[in-house]
Amino acid sequence: MMRNLLCLLRLTKYGGGAPDSLIPTILQDVMCIIGGVIGAEKVPEKWWPGSTDLIFNSHNLMHLVALMALYYNNQSSVRDIKWMRQIKAGT
Asked: Of 19, 28, 32, 91, which residue is most buried, by most CB within 10 angstroms?
């Protein structure tokens, strides 16, 4: 809830951050939710029991989705840092 509130705060005049970093921030949260659902529901194991024991199991998929969330986190952070440098420089 707090994360969503802070995302909405960025849209107001009281929030800060680069305007183009909102989409990667939202995508990061979406990836975290998808990874949590995959891990909790044990999706591939439920559909194909025994055939996904070593590769393509829910734990491995959750880690791949977590890496995608980290990528979007990095994109958002880099855009915010560039935005802060521009504001500090006065351009």
From this structure: 28
